[in-house]
Design brief:
By secondary structure, the protein is mainly alpha-helical. It has helices spanning 6-24, 29-50, 59-80, 85-88, 92-104, 109-127, 143-172, 179-198, 227-244, 254-261, 265-276, 280-297, 302-308, 314-325, 329-336. It has two domains: 6-203; 226-336, Homeodomain-like (Arc Repressor Mutant, subunit A, Orthogonal Bundle), CATH 1.10.10.60. This is AraC family transcriptional regulator. InterPro entries: Homeodomain-like_sf (IPR009057), HTH_AraC (IPR018060), HTH_AraC-typ_CS (IPR018062).
Length: 339
């Protein structure tokens, strides 16, 4: 029986996920590009490490360095803002540095890859610190899940960087024969993690979100909001939510809500945090849960109440219902259902 190299299995799984997502048509193209890059890297590893096609060896570190850059740009374009020629073209610099090191200073290559992987993991981590609502292009319902997803991606990038150092150490210690094993193990695991997580429906672009113009280019840091200003803005937001019922839109994002109110995204997010101690997703979901409770009390089936109140999935509804009401929907219905 012929053993299938782990990276080849990884490539097959990632290609299947990418083809399936492309067929469905809801996954952003940048996400598909990241998954295809991970699959291509797995194929390169197989050809180089398992079948000895050394002509492709110089390409492997360059495509490896593309992965953390592509992961970070995917994060930006799905969660925070569109890409711009400037300054986003600067992300080509690490790739050029890796290509140069591969051609002239191979002894520095492992450390350079380590720094690039860890550096971009750090950039992702920094941008998801704080409230989940700082991801203006993610559906409000999915903001918490998106933060968790990108934290896993950041950890996977760091894990991949440590794998590169492990390879370098094995070679220095005279165990170069272990290199294919280490490469197969860490690449198969971490490329699959990065690619698989990127296929999550959490990153699917909200419908009818055509205007992707970023607020202020995404460069300015959020300014603190005075308590009086936060309270006034929250009162205005409360009134608007009750009158417009925008929370019933399952594709509602921070960007859309801020534009409806005519206020900066970061100011709105900061005001909700300052005035309520919660992030915007939890604030919006309280309106949705109250609406679902009213519908269920009037006799609507739970499933109908879930989608009529603005939720996309039953799992999110159940989690938020337990958080807001302190009990499951079935237990709440037993105590408050229609009579």
């Amino acid at each position: 029986m012929i053993a299938l190299p782990i990276p080849l299995f990884t490539a097959a799984v990632l290609l299947f996920l990418a083809m399936r997502a492309a067929f469905i048509g809801e996954t952003p193209r940048m996400v598909l590009a990241l998954v295809m890059l991970c699959a291509g890297q797995s194929v390169l590893i197989v050809l180089n490490q398992h079948y000895g096609i050394q002509v492709l060896a110089p390409l492997q570190p360059v495509t490896a360095g593309l992965i953390p850059v592509a992961a970070y740009l995917t994060f930006l374009i799905t969660a925070q803002r569109p890409l711009h020629p400037w300054p986003d073209c600067l992300h080509l610099v690490p790739i050029l540095a890796i290509a140069l090191a591969a051609a002239t200073m191979s002894s520095l290559l492992d450390w350079l890859l380590f720094l690039v992987f860890c550096g971009y993991a750090g950039l992702i981590w920094i941008r998801i610190k704080g409230p989940a609502a700082d991801l203006p292009m993610i559906r409000i319902e999915n903001s918490d899940k998106a933060v968790l997803l990108w934290r896993f991606v950041a950890f996977a990038l760091i894990g991949s960087a440590l794998g590169d150092l492990g390879i370098g150490y094995a070679v220095m210690a005279g165990h170069g024969d272990l290199k294919p094993v280490i490469v197969s193990a860490y690449s198969g695991l971490f490329l699959l993690v990065i690619g698989g997580l990127s296929m999550s429906e959490t990153l699917n672009r909200p419908l009818a979100d055509q205007d992707q113009t970023p607020e202020g280019g995404g460069k300015t840091a959020p300014k603190p909001v005075e308590p009086q200003v936060a309270a006034a803005l929250l009162q205005r937001l409360d009134s608007y939510m009750r009158e417009s019922q925008s929370y019933l839109n399952p594709d509602l994002t921070l960007r859309k809500l801020a534009r409806q109110l005519g206020v900066p995204e970061k100011q709105l997010s900061a005001a909700v945090n300052e005035a309520t101690g919660e992030n915007l997703p939890r604030y919006v979901n309280r309106f949705r849960i109250d609406t679902a409770c009213r519908l269920m009390a009037e006799g609507a089936p739970v499933t109908s109440a879930i989608y009529a109140s603005g939720f996309n999935t039953k799992s999110n509804f159940n989690r938020e219902f337990l958080r807001v009401k302190g009990q499951s929907p079935s237990a709440w219905l037993a105590a408050h259902g229609s009579t």
